[in-house]
Amino acid sequence: MINESDLRLIKMNTSHYYQLNSNGINCKINYNNRTFFDKFTRVNATLNSNIIKQHFANEIVVAHNLINRNNKVENIVIDYNGTNDTDFYHKAQLLLRNEGFLNFTAYRSKTRGHLHIYVHKGHTDLSEAKFLAKNLSAKLMNVTLKQYRIFPTDELPLDFNILVLPYEIYAKERGSSWAKHL
């Protein structure tokens, strides 16, 4: 189980959070000629440690928004939902280092084989973050199967650029030890 100090590495926007509806679909949204079904409800309350504890106790499912106020993004996230998370992480880790991203953390979600790799980019404009995400996706597609999605993305409505809080740390990468090899 992850502790809250490790969760702070994500630098989440805690002014609000999203909660999974227990009764299923909240609403239907049309976006770019596609139909999306929203299963989460935005809760305009602070994401505090009590809510996080309820999430870890499997009482509720909580997601956080990747896009902060003023359309800023702290992390680019690779959401992997495939068959071989160890192999995928190894390839993604090498690619990220090669591209100059030295600080990232991989988290496990509740689902087996599901990883969220948070690339700690810092205070980045949404348009630049989307551009970086598209470039990473194209380069990652050359080395592995397309069993992932990279956030933020313009393929989804802004309110769909959310991720469920992770449950444990898979691996941390801090670049100072690797910087001499680049």
Q: Helix count?
A: 4
Distance between the termini: 33 Å
Low-confidence stretches: 177-182
Give the overall average pLDDT.
86
> At the first level of CATH, what is the class?
Alpha Beta
Could you please say which CATH topology applies here?
Answer: DNA primase, PRIM domain
Principal-axes geometry comes out as globular
Percent of residues in beta strands: 25-35%
- Describe the strand arrangement of the main beta sheet, using strand numbers: 9-6-8-7-11
- Assigned CATH architecture: Alpha-Beta Complex
**Whole-number radius of gyration?**
16 Å
The major pleated sheet works out as: 5 strands, antiparallel
Secondary-structure element string: HEEEEHEEHEEHEEE
Characterise the protein shown here:
The termini are far apart. Strand 2 and strand 3 form a beta hairpin. The C terminus is likely disordered. The protein is globular, with a radius of gyration of 16 Å. The chain has a single domain, classed as Alpha-Beta Complex (DNA primase, PRIM domain). It contains four helices and eleven strands. By secondary structure, the protein is of the alpha+beta class. The longest helix has 16 residues. The strands form three sheets. A five-stranded antiparallel β-sheet has the order 9-6-8-7-11. Strands 4-1-5-10 form a four-stranded antiparallel β-sheet, covered by helices on one side.
Essential attributes:
182 residues; alpha+beta; DNA primase, PRIM domain; four-stranded antiparallel sheet; 4 helices; 11 strands; 23% helix; globular
